[in-house]
């Protein structure tokens, strides 16, 4: 019915203005709010920061009864409730941090109709006493945040979430809205299936963050490159992620030595200290936080100008989420990934040491995808967006590949030089050693091994170390060389495919090594 329809729209907009003080809806919000008000189930896939909360908070205000919000993160739950209370909305939560008396009090408020929104952690819903309590409430609407947690295929599976499938039969008249920021096709299907959503309205927002410039920088002297990059940011706020506490400390120290106000943040620090770092960062008293992935969940800072990854993240989802903390204010921001193939090999090795489970297999797929992202020679943004199922074809002109396209050259001679060197040193040495031989370095190890007398010694002295490293990486990537990694060493060996190249029986294109150690925005 048209007039009722437009009345609903007016009410939603009116709540947006009067309660939240915002002028207009963002993309997607209105349509999913509308679906909920029409009592339709829905699945909302929206990138972090685009405003998922309002999608269920506004219908919650329009319905006469209670809205249940299922959310797995207890700390965020409290933030949300506090924010709603500030806006004059009756909201509360039930979770394991509360005493029995506190929970009793919240429950009686809910039963007597004094609450509009009730936030719940998923494990609450699995208990018998909960169902007894909730059957005495008038539930109008149910929102399930972080809905990907229901899927084993997602990156954050939570067993309690599988219980949420019971909600539909419990409240057949209350529409359910499932929300998530990360969901590939399989996860989406899993959400619909497990929650038993009926003819749902599906909204899938764009994952593009056009103001973020994606840059990949090959690691040569990583610490120097990182410091140079951060100094180039001239005091702008940023986050550096790396994957060990030890490195976090070392990087923060190096940056401080160069005069950057940098602080470490990781799970090994006590709570008070972590909170202080977070607060100082929020208030711009700290310019750079160097962190393990533990940092960022609750952070809501809009002027983060750069996010640098010192190590390769474990998945594209993680990379996207972490880089997504940059440029929330829609102004230009930079995401820089420092990469070397050895990082990938290391992550893979760690993974293969775990017991072989379906979970491990999923993690392997995800690792492979981020590896392909790093090795890709096409627009970074296209690779990212295509990964999230948002098929695009037009390059973005705002990533390292678009701005500085890899140039090809006839790499046969270079490849032969490298391969001969690998062969002559007995296929028993790693990248650095082979490069040193190529460049004719007079070091003790080379002399002791008698490798300074080889015909290949010094045949590549006209090129830099980084140049040869890059050529070797490409040869590994092309399957002409193999990097064998054991506990202590990594050695280069020739593969079967190397023969025709060594004999000069084929052509070989390589990308001109891109050795830009400094990267600054040119625009
Ligand atoms: P998400 O849950 O998708 O990560 P949030 O719901 O936390 O995002 O919203 C991110 C920010 O955007 C919040 O500060 C929120 O108040 C703001 N916001 C959401 N919708 C609007 C809107 N229509 N107009 C202006 N700001 C909005
Ligand atoms: Zn691009």
From TrEMBL:
Residue ranges of domain Helicase ATP-binding in the record: 33-201
Annotated catalysed reactions: ATP + H2O = ADP + phosphate + H(+); Couples ATP hydrolysis with the unwinding of duplex DNA by translocating in the 3'-5' direction
Single GO BP term: DNA replication
Gene Ontology terms for molecular function: 3'-5' DNA helicase activity; ATP binding; DNA binding; four-way junction helicase activity; hydrolase activity; metal ion binding
Domain Helicase C-terminal: 222-370
Entry keyword Isomerase: yes
Coiled-coil regions, chain positions: none
Enzyme Commission number: 5.6.2.4
Source superkingdom: Bacteria
Cofactor(s) of this protein: Zn(2+); Mg(2+)
Record GO cellular component, one term: cytoplasm
Keywords: ATP-binding, DNA damage, DNA recombination, DNA repair, DNA-binding, Helicase, Hydrolase, Isomerase, Metal-binding, Nucleotide-binding, Zinc
Function of the protein: An ATP-dependent DNA helicase which unwinds DNA in a 3'-5' direction. Plays a role in recombination.
Entry similarity comment: Belongs to the helicase family. RecQ subfamily.
UniProt name for this protein: DNA helicase RecQ
Naturally occurring in which organism (per UniProt): Caviibacterium pharyngocola
Whole-protein residues included: 19 to 541 of 634
